[in-house]
Design a protein that fits this description.
alpha/beta; Beta Polymerase, domain 2; 10 strands; Rossmann fold; elongated; 6-stranded parallel beta sheet; 4-stranded antiparallel beta sheet; 16 helices
Length: about 425
């Protein structure tokens, strides 16, 4: 059995490719179900964020599962395998475990130490559980991953300062504009990312925040929180026409801002900075060619974050030590799980023998009252438990070792457990 991770992330492929395989949250359960139905995939979870679409699977046939998941990603993005292959990220077993732990700890994020990824890892696990696709191994893996993420942020300073993509986007804009005072700022999208942007803008002293969202109630709630103004999408043209800064993060899947739209909406000489952190992107590529319009996306944000992360670099090794220790702990527990079916089989066999013997001598217990019958039950259960305790512990401790394999084979043979 192998743990496998395959996908595309911000390190392995360009944004133009990553956005083609990004799954909107409502589409993730369907993707999990489709992958779980593949012949070579026993358990599966899908982690799809603005930085990655990674598929974690448990399989007994590595190459078959690799092909199944690769084909799924090719279908999702409309790629022939040869086009996707150079950008495909893949790890297995210990390396796959270490990768997920680094992701949860914020080591593999565009903004080192960002906190949003931990909730995204949890959501990926919960979705897999809801679809019946996460069982013994993935449950153990993701439970450990969340523990690593929490340890990294409580035992080190990796998450101090700018610790989310949305906050980093605002900091990058402030860095370029100098100040948000007397600037009219438009936030397009009021989801989790939009909420983070709006809150960061408010803290950064933005004088006027406009929030545009398709769902009026959600946009209004976010605008109230940051002393802003909520707008429906029917007023988007009006808002874009007067904005100095636009930050967009919808999940539309299609461009929200196009070159033609901006040309009609704005004065050609009015400067505009657009920060697009949506995946797929909200801003059409042709917008960057417009005069007096500057467009920045996640690639620009990653470059900016790389230049400004020196204060966190000292924490990286401390977090990596946590990851290494937790990988070892996971491997130990996962190996012990391999002995669990054999231990359960021994206990079931012993319980069958115990019940059979009690039934055989039932006539001799006819004169016993209920309390005495209960005492016999408790006594015989206790004897079985004590007899099996030490062998069970040894089988779990030695699982995965040559001695453990010999002992397991001997036990299975001696007790005829097949």
């Amino acid at each position: 059995m192998s743990i496998l991770v395959i996908g595309v992330n911000h390190r392995s492929g360009p944004l133009s490719l990553l956005e083609r395989v990004t799954l909107a949250p409502p589409d993730v359960p369907k993707a999990v179900a489709a992958l779980a139905a593949r012949d070579n995939v026993r358990e599966v979870a899908v982690l799809s964020t603005c930085n990655r679409t990674e598929i974690y699977a448990v399989t007994e046939k590595f190459h078959g599962a690799y092909a199944d998941i690769r084909d799924f990603l090719c279908d999702l993005g409309g790629f022939p395998p040869d086009e996707l292959h150079p950008y495909l990220f893949a790890q297995h077993d210990e390396a796959a475990v270490a990768h997920l732990f680094e992701v949860a700890a914020g080591l593999d994020s565009a903004v080192i130490g960002e906190s949003e990824i931990l909730g995204q890892v949890r959501q990926a696990w919960e979705t897999a559980q809801a679809e019946g696709a996460a069982r013994l191994t993935l449950n153990l893996l993701f439970r450990h991953a969340l523990g690593v993420g929490k340890r990294a942020r409580t035992e080190t300073a990796i998450g101090r300062g700018t610790a989310s993509v949305s906050h980093a986007a605002v900091e990058m804009a402030v860095d370029l504009l100098g100040s948000l005072v007397d600037r009219r700022v438009l936030v397009i999208g009021a989801g989790a990312m939009g909420e983070g942007i709006a809150v960061a803008l408010h803290r950064a002293g933005a004088s006027e925040i406009l929030v545009a969202n398709r769902t009026a109630e959600r946009g209004a709630a976010l605008a109230d929180r940051v002393d802003g103004v909520a707008l429906g999408f029917e007023r988007l043209t009006e808002a874009v026409a007067t904005a100095d800064l636009v930050l967009t993060c919808t999940g539309s899947g299609e461009p929200v801002l196009t070159a033609d739209y901006l040309t009609l909406a704005r004065s050609a000489s009015r400067p505009l900075l657009i920060v697009d952190i949506a995946v797929p992107r909200d801003v059409d590529a042709a917008v960057a060619d417009l005069e007096h319009v500057t467009v920045l996306d996640l690639d620009d944000l990653r470059d900016w974050a790389d230049r400004g992360r020196s204060h966190r670099l000292g924490e990286l090794e401390r977090v990596r030590e946590i990851v290494r220790a937790e990988v070892d702990r996971f491997e130990h527990e996962a190996t012990a799980l391999q002995a669990a079916p054999l231990v359960a089989a021994i206990r079931e066999h012993a319980e069958d023998v115990r019940r059979s013997e009690l039934e055989r001598f039932a006539s001799r217990f006819a004169d016993l009252d209920d309390a005495e019958i209960d005492a016999v039950e408790a006594l015989t259960r206790g004897i079985v438990a004590k007899l099996l305790h030490h062998p069970s512990v040894r089988l779990k401790q030695q699982a995965g070792t040559p001695q453990g394999e010999r002992n397991a084979a001997a036990v299975a043979d001696l007790f005829d457990l097949g």
